[in-house]
Amino acid sequence: MKILVLRPERAARRTAEALSRLGFEAVLAPVLTIEDLASPIPDGPFDAVLATSANGLRKLKERPEIAALSRAPLIAVGDRTAEAGREAGFSTVHVAEGDGRALVDEAAARFPAPARFLHAAGANRAFDVAGALAARGHATTVVELYRATAATELPEAARWALETGALGAALHHSGRIAETFVALSVEAGFAEIVKNLPHATLAPRIAQALERAGCRRIAIARRPDETALIEALQSLVA
After folding, report:
1. What does residue 48 show for φ and ψ, rounded to 5 degrees?
2. Which of 32, 114, 151, 228 is most buried, by CB atoms within 10 Å?
3. pLDDT of residue 169
4. Distance of CA 121 to the CA centre of its chain
């Protein structure tokens, strides 16, 4: 069965490997691309570095400041981000339960206020980590290390898969991915096909974007991580 994978290319290849091990064939059609941002990183010290995506840590790893920053603890949003943090040189890594709110809870539980955090972030953020921590008495410096840029037309691989009816389902790792895919698909004339296609999503807010578009078959992961997302996919297409 062919599964449409819409996340940025590097991450999409990892997803394709995981799908392949379970007998699925991934159709890679990224609707977002990752662009580096040259944002300055202020001097520390910081009590901890916060990471809501592996992309932010990969970009941080390329900066000379990583030598000093990696001496601080890292609080990662999930297992994949934690793995990227270890690869970047962090030796003390704490893992939250998979989303921005959980990361804020983890940081607040581990560090009494007022603590000083650095958030290695993207320009497009679904949740205001710094604002949530400020409400708990902490100071967070947000450094935007990358930008996820949306495609302006439906990727050719997605167009082919929708035209031929080859797809068994689509995976959605973020609300922005879901919204971009739906918008590009409607523009390309595939609105009804997308409404009837099974969709597996990482979180309820992502499912809501698909529901607004009229999609009828949606499964939501039990946890906001890729293992649970693929489990949701399996339940959807079983």
Report:
1. -165, 160
2. 32
3. 98
4. 11
- pLDDT for 54 equals 92
141 contacts 117 by C-beta, under 8 angstroms? yes
Amino acid sitting at position 201: T
Q: Can you give the pTM of this predicted structure?
A: 0.86
Domain 2-31+151-237: CATH class, spelled out:
alpha beta
Q: What integer pLDDT is reported at residue 225 of this predicted model?
A: 87
C-alpha 74/C-alpha 59 separation (Å) is: 15
CATH topology of domain 34-149: Rossmann fold (3.40.50)
The parts of the chain modelled with pLDDT lower than 50 are none
Residues in the chain: 238
pLDDT given at position 113: 97
Helices assigned H by DSSP within 77-190: 79-87, 100-110, 129-134, 156-164, 175-187
Same CATH topology for 2-31+151-237 and 34-149: the answer is yes
